[in-house]
Design goal:
single chain; 224 residues; 2 domains; 25% strand
């Protein structure tokens, strides 16, 4: 009788062990299957995810060109943003933008930032802006974006100096217009990089201000 009980106990133990091992293997197989399936999905997602280009522009720039993307301010609430070669030069987050015309200077040969400034063209004085424009060195890339109002204090001298950088819209820039521009000191032709939206109460997106203007592109590197 004792031997029979021992046999039964051993049989139950072996059966239990077998069942547990089978369940464990099934769970292991399921987990491994889940891991492999997840890895395959992740790999597929990576392969279909569109590539990111510098400054978030829509396509890569050719060799010997600098990528840029910029936007004007939104009414008098959100400041402009200027990015060159994946380097955000001016933005509200950097806290270096202000009412008026915001300017970023970049070395035309290397793409290195040279400095940023903003000039209040509503309550400020145009004289410092004129002196700044005159001081820009040949071969410098000049990026400009308006915020709130960039035109009230502009005079003919300031507009002429900006036109010499390649702008065609600066002569028509008016009160609370939105404008972005990329040109250069010593440029021989008019710049193709310029966007301008007039302040018009019938078409404005915001009360008293037009919609934001955005622009992106590839700036040719200055050659020797």
């Amino acid at each position: 009788t004792g031997a029979a009980k021992l046999v039964v106990v051993i049989a139950i133990f072996l059966l239990t062990f077998y069942v547990i091992s089978q369940v464990f293997e099934i769970k292991m197989d399921a987990n491994l299957g889940h891991i492999f399936a997840r890895s395959a999905l992740d790999a597929a997602a990576r392969s279909t995810k569109p590539p990111r280009y510098k400054c978030g522009i829509s396509k890569a720039c050719p060799e010997k060109h600098f990528a840029f993307k910029m936007s004007s301010g939104a009414a008098n609430v959100v400041g402009p943003k200027i990015c060159v070669e994946d380097n955000v030069l001016m933005s509200g987050v950097k806290n270096n933008v202000g009412r008026g015309i915001n300017v970023a200077l970049v070395n035309g040969k290397t793409g290195e930032p040279l400095g940023t400034k903003f000039f209040d063209m509503w309550g400020g004085d145009v004289a410092p802006f004129i002196e700044f424009l005159k001081s820009i060195q040949d071969g410098t890339i000049v990026l400009m974006a308006t915020y709130d109002d960039g035109a009230t204090k502009l005079n003919e001298e300031a507009r002429k100096l900006i036109a010499e950088l390649g702008s065609t819209s600066i002569t028509n820039l008016g009160f609370r217009d939105n404008w972005v521009f990329c040109g250069g000191k010593g440029i021989k032709t008019k710049s193709p990089f310029e966007q301008h939206i007039k302040n018009n109460k019938d078409t404005n997106k915001y009360e008293g201000w037009p919609e934001v203007v955005e622009m992106e592109g590839c700036i040719p590197q200055k050659q020797e």
